[in-house]
Design a protein that fits this description.
By secondary structure, the protein is α/β, with parallel strands linked by helices. 31% of the residues lie in helices and 22% in strands. Helix 1 packs antiparallel against helix 2, helix 4 packs across helix 9 and helix 4 crosses helix 10. The model has no long low-confidence stretch (mean pLDDT 89).
């Protein structure tokens, strides 16, 4: 009885905290859970019992996109879903998702979980499925080398019944071979967009024997078709495989082979790397029993927000927001802009707060040369607390210096003047930013959006 009262009290305090935060104009995505767990440390274990089944999504890139897309698809199948859709992926964020949802039963709990937080979450959640998107070098000052992160996730999978949804094109999936868990693989076959003779800078060594991997083709980063000449390791057989893709400005038509058939889809989100996120969602949705027609229609109706390839309309102008936080992600973001043949301007917001990673040297590992392949770039804006570092990195690509605009920020809030100048140009704009930059840019743009459309 005392435990029940303690649990109820902790939830009440969390709800009260959330209301206060909302009244003060804050999102309240993590603090309510943090406050509640101070009162009841095992609150997550108790709350997750409300879910009939649970799914964890982790990996370096694509967690939030995959989580939001999966929620959208499964909302066409399940009535009640608990999820941390806003990207708050620590334990406190997962707990907060329950506190603000206020239901006594959920058909499904879907939770994006930070890679380093997986061990803490799996102490409370025994997931039915774990989706692993990929592993890249990311925030080295926090995680160290990528092998440390992989081991954290690997050692957290203790229930042999948990089904693993794995990216067969990422060599790091081989690290999970020794686990007895059921495994479902998805992959992206070779298409016109695949690259050959590209230098692979990450995870170049075989997880099985340590020999250097060879690649037949790359889709992005170190993701592609690989093999080891020493031990014979290669991509696992894929249950869900992308066969063809046609890119357009803002969407992709593609075909996937699964269940002995070829299925057609459309994804209205930029970035070829998002096709991998979509493959993971299709694989898991199908494994859960959703039919093709439901999955297809739900994916096609998906519109993304939260600054991950989010388009904000300001009168006759469109601004695309893109979160990017590591070398592979940033390189692929620049590649995604190739499909727009019209004049455009680009802003890169580089901050060095703890959430961004204090060490910004990672930008030198990103392929900034991709910028020179983008058609009709009018100006490139460098903003944020480390704007000068971004401008220097851009200069080393031989990008025309007369097109580089530098707007150093005294703090993460100091973006308005740069964004105002960006918007004064009569063309489409892209704003790419790290963790603390993107919410501030989004806030400024929506304030402008509301002023335009409230009149």
């Amino acid at each position: 009885m005392k435990g029940d009262l303690n649990t109820k009290f902790s939830i009440s305090v969390g709800k009260f905290t959330y209301k206060i935060l909302k009244l003060s104009g804050k999102k309240g995505t993590a603090l309510p859970g943090k406050v509640s767990m101070k009162i009841e440390p095992n609150l997550l274990s108790k709350m997750v019992n409300k879910c009939d089944r649970t799914i964890i999504i982790t990996g370096t890139n694509g967690k939030t996109t995959t989580n939001n897309l999966l929620n959208h698809v499964l909302n066409g199948f399940y009535e009640n879903i608990a999820s941390n859709l806003n990207g708050s992926n620590l334990v406190t964020g997962v707990v907060t998702s329950f506190i603000i949802n206020k239901k006594n039963h959920y058909d499904c709990g879907i939770f994006e979980v930070d890679e380093g937080t997986v061990p803490k979450v799996t102490k409370h959640i025994n997931p039915n499925y774990i989706v692993i998107t990929n592993f890249f070098r990311d925030q080295l000052d926090r995680f160290g080398e990528v092998e440390n992160t992989i081991k954290l996730v690997h050692d957290s999978i203790t229930n042999p019944q948990t089904v693993l949804i794995l990216n067969a094109d990422d060599p790091s999936c081989l690290y999970f071979n020794d686990l007895p868990n059921p495994k479902v693989y998805y992959s992206h076959g070779e298409t016109e967009n695949s690259k050959k003779d590209v230098e692979v800078l990450e995870s170049v060594f075989c997880p099985i024997c340590g020999n250097r991997l060879e690649y037949d083709f790359i889709n992005y980063g170190n993701i592609g078709q690989y093999h080891c000449n020493n031990c014979g390791a290669s991509n696992p057989f894929s249950d869900y495989k992308l066969i063809s893709v046609t890119p357009y400005d803002g969407y992709y038509d593609f075909t996937i082979g699964y269940c002995n058939e070829q299925k057609s889809f459309r994804l209205n989100v930029m970035g070829l790397y998002n096709l991998y996120n979509c493959l993971a969602v299709i694989a898991l949705s199908s494994e859960l029993g959703l039919d093709y027609e439901t999955i297809q229609s739900r994916i096609q109706s998906f519109e993304y927000k939260l600054g991950r390839m989010e388009t904000i309309k300001l009168g006759n102008k469109e601004v695309v927001l893109v979160l990017s936080k590591n070398p592979v992600g940033l390189s692929e973001v620049f590649s995604a802009f190739h499909t727009n043949p019209n004049e455009k301007s680009i802003m890169f917001i580089l901050n060095d707060y703890a959430a961004d990673g204090k060490d910004v040297s990672w930008i030198w590992d990103a392929n900034f040369d991709e910028i020179n392949n983008i058609q009709k770039v009018k100006n490139f804006y460098c903003a944020g607390t480390r704007a000068e570092d971004a401008a220097l990195r851009l200069k080393y690509t031989n990008f025309p210096t007369d097109k580089i605009r530098i707007y150093p920020g005294k703090d993460k809030f100091d973006l308005k003047s740069g964004i105002d100048q960006l918007l004064s140009e009569n063309n489409r704009s892209y704003i790419v930013g790290t963790f603390t930059g993107m919410p501030e840019a989004r806030k400024i743009l929506y304030e402008k959006h509301d002023k335009i459309y409230e009149n």
